[in-house]
Amino acid sequence: MSKTVDSEGRFHRDTDWQPGVFFGVLALVLLIGVAVLFGRFWIAGIFQKAFDRVPTQGTVHVFQFDYAYEPRHITWRVGDRVTIALRNMSDTHWHEMVIGRGYDTVPSAFGAIATQFKTDFWDGVPVRISNAHHVDNLVLNKARATFVGSKPNLATGGDFSPTLQPGGSINLTFTVPNKPGEWQYGCFVQQYMHYVAGMNGTITILPAK
Amino acid sequence: MSSVVSDMHGARSEHARVKRMLPPVVRGLLWALIGFLVMNTLVSEVFDRMPYHPFITRASVTLGWVAAVGGWILGVGAWEGAVKPYLGYPEEWVVPQDWRKYFMYSTDHKVIGLQYIFSSLGGFLIAGFAAMLMRLELMKGQMWIFNNPGAYLSTVGVHGTVMMFSVGTVALVGGFGNYFIPLMIGANSTSFPRMSGVSQWLVPAGIATVVISPVLGQWTTGWRGYEPLAGQDPAGILFYYLGVFALTTSSLLVAINLTATILFKRAPGLTWNRIPMYAWGILAVSLLNLIWLPEIQMTFVMALLNAVIPLPYFAQIGSPLTYMEMFWLFGHPEVYIIVVPAFALWQEILPVMGQKSLFARQWGIIGLVFVMILSGLVWAHHMFTNMRNSQMLPFSFFTEMISIPTGFAYLVSLGTMWRANLKLNTPTLYTLMSMFNFLIGGVTGVLLADPVVNLQVHDSFFVVAHFHYTVIGAMVFSWFAAFFYWFPKLSGRMYNEFWGKVGAIWVFIAFNMTFGQFFFLGLHGMNRWVPVYPSYLEPMNFEVSLFAFLLGLGFVFNFLHIAWMWNKGPVAKDNPWQAKTLEWQTASPPGEQNFDPIPKVISGFYDYRDQRLPIRNSPQKEPTS
Amino acid sequence: MSEVTDQKASAPSFKQASTAKELRQNRFGLILFVTSQMVPYFMLINDRFVLADTYVSRRVDPLLGGFLPTLLLLLGVLPSWLAVRAIARNALLQMQRQLQLTGLLGVLALIVMVWPMFSHRYDAISPFGEIHLVSLGLGGFFTLAALFVLGSVLLRATKGVIGPQHYFSVEASAWVWTFNAIAWLVLYIAVYFI
Questions:
Q1: Least CA distance to C33: which residue of chain B?
Q2: Assigned CATH for B106-568
Q3: Which of B420, B403, B439, B442 is nearest to B350 (CA)?
Q4: Mean pLDDT across B227-256
Q5: Where is the Heme-copper oxidase subunit III family profile domain (chain C) (predicted)?
Q6: How far apart are the C-alpha atoms of A53 and A206, rounded to whole Å?
Q7: How far is Cα B93 from Cα B100, in angstroms, rounded to an integer?
Q8: Which terminal CB of chain C, N or C, has fewer other CB atoms within 10 Å?
């Protein structure tokens, strides 16, 4: 941004700004806008699939938004000791996290809608539950749970699912069971609409070394 | 500039002039980004840290947006062009006289007018694209383009909001109004050129905000932002409120500027009796804007606080109906904000093209003013389903009454055409089409004002058809009429009459085939706000969508024709239509000074009984008071 | 008063001496804007009865959030117009003093009006009080705006662009101030007495 001086000693900018910079930046901004608007989950998924092949160990923070998870892809190895630190970041919405594969569906005007997973990842898995705050309810199903600290409100029915109130949190610590392959996680609250709206992700579990 | 410098300072300035300034728009984007990051970080990390400290919270994104818009406005030139001179620093904002002037802050009303026209054109194309996506989705009875209903509803919301607040409210007022009002009243600038320069740059900011709102989360309320539904939506609704806030602020400033211009900048001899029809239209619209835009801004501020703080309005205290009252108090006058300039345009174009005096001019003005007054008394017809029968009667009555002053606009136009030797060219064609379409929109409006019909077709495609006939049918067709009518004035060139007519007929047929069928879709049971519908409606929806795509292509064709002829068209005469209004009594396109000297008006502009000009170019510059 | 004279011909005319007509035009534009900003007040005062009837939250302090700012703002009206009178007589220093006095009163008013809002907890326990807080917040926002205008005029005064031929900005700040004071007075009466 240079300034030049005219005959009366006043400052003036050189106003012949470059069209190349203008159109280049404008095109770039438009491109970013379109990408963010239409493809942000898609792009994020590609990135995570591409760069997230190293198994995560220890704690993985899973944030719940309206209506998406961050991250959308997790990789684990069988036998590792891991913790899911689940956080509901929404100001307004209750969110859960169910892990499984296959779908139970219900027909509707929208076409078949996934209502929950057919297989529950947590079947028979020993899990230590801690740091439970603002948990609306926790369905244990067939998981073998132990509790540290305050015990959340337990409920029954459906797969293993912690449902968090806005701002809620829960930590699930467990040893990755011998169930290798692709798993899904998702949130099915509000008549499954969160899942339909894209609130889901995938977990890759690599076999033990 | 640079040659002066090298003359003065010789070798030293050889070093000084290597770098050029950053393009103002790029600088605006940069400052906006910096503003957003700084403010957002301050709020979300320092002042209002939330549990688990997310970087973007509702409060931080709201305040960050305010900083971003401030940075954008200052960056495109308001810093040098408005703020610094106001504070007493010398003015150092120089606008180059080439295409660059359209992409930076300017105080020339013609540049600002064209910037407004470009901005609303951009909004029209974006929102039109959203409409194409919607029609694509509705070709099938199930979800197939969007993967969830919320995405479809967000698209509907973006379409409606951008069309209403950046096209309907802006195109004929901020756009053609800013360009032509000073020309039509014999002035060289508007009253508050700096404010006008600032207000234009709020429009792209507002459009961009609304368009990227789904990034923050879906919002399912459409352009009406109904509470408490909006309160349950994810954070995308915030950008709806904020974007609309920017757009309405822009229109509010335009209203103040143009009202003051019409009242204080008129050429000598341009008495109240001689004020042009379009200026009357703009005056009426400005009054509506001045009353109702602050109203809707306050409503949206309350809804925004509801979402950010959060406050308990319309759910714990008040009711959904409270919000609807507040919204439609503005929402119905909005229709007349859109349509009144279109009426005024008919009355500008028809006398010129018929070379016949405007019929019953004072009744035309009375019509515009009474439409404006009555528009504030009809809002509750949008919620007949929520009211007692006894409450419906006055609103039904006033709504039907509004067809009387609207009828004046028709009678003035028809009387002008009566036995006129009407030149049936593209602007005339568009004007007639606009009249035809608004007739359908208006008559179905009278039907909808009737509670018996209203309760039956409420929230169906019948209503969608009705308001598209009023908004596209009247305003967008008149917008095209204005484009072609003033094309020689704006560009100094002539469009191609054949392709102009082809474009007009193309758009007219596609429009009527699309929205005409909407009436029948509605009567057959097609609901608004749903991406899925019973399968028996599928064939008709499929075929309507095809016409909708044809309509979209028709608009694109017209814009391409305009853009092409703007550069390549044959050079036009200064006054190709032999019009008497003031804007044609100067060069086409006007020079940097519209009039030099300011002309003296000696008669009205709509008297075509003889060939005498309505102005006398005074030999010396006359005092303007 | 040294007017800056080396302006380009195409620059807006505001550094030259304002003609009577320009002054009327500027005044008209400003009053139009101020008038349009009455609409939100009308709306909020009406909404209050719809949303909360005549309930006044016990947490809204009638002294801090009500009487004191009303008094301070109304007191500020006088020096703001005295400043206009002063600059019309070419008494720049006197104008600055008067405006500074107005500004001081404004800052005090802002502090006492924001205090109850600052100490208020936004939770679901007292929802009926919130409509008052939003009304008072609107008043606070406009007070801030009026102070902002005042500050910019004071800044201009140091740059030598205000003089007896060109003092509309001083008058503008007085108009904005008066509007804000009256609007707040109406709000005060509506919230605490009706």
A1: B256
A2: 1.20.210.10
A3: B420
A4: 91
A5: 1-194
A6: 10
A7: 13
A8: C
